[in-house]
């Protein structure tokens, strides 16, 4: 089942918009998992293979299966992750094509909030992990310190109330530490932990910040490209005036993800 038709179909656009920041969060998430070498892993909503690659490098997993509903993403993942331990195939996060207890670890990066039934998705992750194995995921802090999107939607909503229909800070209340922890505990996971992963996002110029919103891939770019050209120009100039800009035009923003993990009981 696709997450949202067309939302994440363009891999190259995603790389420019969020992939470059996810690439820095993924290794920090893998370090925090505290994995022992070896074991089998499934990466659900693997996208272009960013988290898969981080696991192969930072955790030395024995094998990893990447699952995604977007065929374009899977093509990019196969091209970019040549490690023979990795396999990529299409699949539905709410009905994983894997047997019970097949993995030592199930992970998902920046996907949970897009799934229509979060509890069912987490239950599937638990189902395919053996007793004593680990389940972990991370999501952007859309409502708080994911400033790339927060600045965008705060300005957009002031100009057009319709922007809130695209704003994951409004649409995805699960992307906060309390709801994430409650979701993991509700799935029967033990030793549940939630923590923030913080990085800085540096843009060389306003155009470096703005151009990815024109790619149409993701909630904010999709909203941006739904506007008329005059409305988009007004949004652009309001954003230019709002963003903290250095003397040479550089922009430095905070980026936060919330990560959660827990062990499968048994």
UniProtKB/TrEMBL annotation:
A Pfam family the protein falls into: Methyltransf_11
Example of a GO MF term: methyltransferase activity
GO biological process: methylation
Methyltransferase is among the record's keywords: yes
Domain spans labelled Methyltransferase type: 42-135
InterPro entries: Methyltransf_11 (IPR013216), Methyltransf_Superfamily (IPR050508), SAM-dependent_MTases_sf (IPR029063)
Assigned keywords, A-Z: Methyltransferase, Transferase
Superkingdom, taxonomy of origin: Bacteria
Name of the protein: Methyltransferase domain-containing protein
Organism from which the protein derives: Microvirga arsenatis
């Amino acid at each position: 089942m696709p997450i949202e038709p067309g939302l994440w179909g363009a891999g190259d656009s995603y790389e420019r918009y969020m992939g470059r920041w996810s690439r820095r969060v993924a290794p920090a998430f893998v370090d925090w998992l505290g994995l022992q070498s070896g074991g089998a892993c499934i990466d659900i909503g693997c996208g272009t293979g960013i988290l898969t690659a981080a696991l192969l490098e930072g955790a030395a997993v024995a094998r990893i299966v990447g699952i995604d509903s977007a065929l374009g993403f899977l093509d990019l993942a196969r091209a970019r992750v040549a490690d023979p331990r990795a396999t990529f195939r299409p699949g539905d996060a709410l009905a994983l094509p894997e047997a019970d207890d097949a993995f030592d670890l199930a992970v998902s990066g920046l996907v949970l909030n897009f799934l229509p039934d979060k509890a069912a998705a987490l239950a599937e992750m638990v189902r395919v992990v053996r007793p004593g194995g680990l389940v972990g995921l991370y999501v952007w802090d859309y409502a708080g310190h994911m400033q790339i999107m927060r600045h965008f939607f705060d300005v957009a909503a002031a100009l057009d109330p319709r922007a809130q229909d695209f704003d994951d800070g409004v649409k995805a209340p699960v992307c906060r530490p309390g709801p994430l922890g409650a979701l993991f505990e509700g799935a029967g996971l033990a030793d549940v932990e939630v923590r923030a992963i913080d990085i800085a996002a540096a843009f060389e110029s306003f155009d470096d910040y703005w151009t990815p919103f024109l790619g149409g891939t993701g909630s904010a770019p999709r909203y941006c490209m739904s506007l008329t050209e005059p409305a988009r120009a007004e949004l652009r100039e309001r954003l230019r005036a709002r963003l903290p800009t250095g003397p040479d035009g550089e922009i430095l923003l905070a980026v936060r993800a919330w990560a959660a993990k827990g062990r499968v009981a048994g």
